[in-house]
Write a structure and sequence with these properties.
By secondary structure, the chain is an alpha+beta fold. It has two helices and four strands, in the order βαββαβ. Helices cover about 20% and strands about 25% of the residues. The strands form two sheets. A two-stranded antiparallel sheet has the order 1-4.
């Protein structure tokens, strides 16, 4: 399952975008995950300082 961003928790820091090996995350005030590119690696989950990203 692709990564899911809780938009209420995301602080827009971009840390997830920097670590994504598939360039599946873009920033638009908050992180936005391209579900077609996401490979469920969890790098963004581990990097997110506000714990706003989960794998579902």
């Amino acid at each position: 399952m692709p990564a899911v961003v809780n938009k209420d928790e995301c602080v827009g820091c971009g840390a997830c975008q920097e670590v994504c090996p598939e360039n599946a995350i873009s920033m638009n005030d908050v992180a936005v995950v391209d579900k077609e590119k996401c490979v469920d690696c969890g790098a963004c989950v581990d990097e997110c300082p506000s714990e706003a990203i989960t794998l579902e």
